[in-house]
Amino acid sequence: MGADYYNSLSLTTLTYENLQEVLGKIAQEHNLLATDVQVVSARPLTVEESIGNPIRQDYPLIKGRETMLEAEVCGAKGQAFTDMPGSFSGSLQEVVEAKISTNFDRAILIATLNATLRHLGWIDRTIHCRDEEPEECAKQLVEYVQDLVAEPKIAFIGLQPAMVDHLSKHYSLRVTDLDAENVGQIKYGVEIEPAEKTAEIIEWSNIILSTGTTLVNNTFSALLTDNKPVVFYGVTVSGIAFLTGSRQFCHCGR
User: Fold this and answer.
1) Quick one: 90 and 154 in the same domain?
2) Number of domains the chain contains
3) Quick one: which of 15, 43, 67, 213 is 20 to 30 A from 61 by CA?
4) CB-CB contact of 205 with 154 (8 Å)
């Protein structure tokens, strides 16, 4: 089986157990399950390791609201955002057989998936951009959105400061965030609304931009609609986007 076989999964029906099953089949096909030779290691990264030293200091990584988890498979690295930091060391087989019940479990699975597909050469953006690259990414997102819909009305899920800043200068957008410190605040001319407003904001919008972290905290299904494009931004979604054919924006990912 090759990469094309696995590209037939659907995000609308995806479960984490399903994802484990697919990762297990990929690992078995490419002889990556053997515990004595193939070891997966994952650890939370420091702020400097994750994003470098950008001038803008209000990213969730810098504020400590999220942690970047990094998994390594055969020298290839894959990352995933999570609000539940921790460390794991074991085999790829352990990952595909583990009980998935927390955001930490999902982050380990997704980071490992990203690292595995990176090792196989199926995806190439699994490491977060650094320093001033998030600014360049945000600038490119402005053009990307315009190419998808006319007169964008954006439902932006998960505050990403540079992206909200640049998009708000060109388009109408409403933003939700899980961080209670952000909710109710005006950021870059936009009021940050609570997650409870997500359904209302999606109904108002004609395009949805969402952090890939929704795949770690298991809230992504609420974003899926039949008539509006959904774009996940960042490296977390890399492997799942490849397997499901979903839209991903990660202009400066490494």
Assistant:
1) no
2) 2
3) 15
4) yes
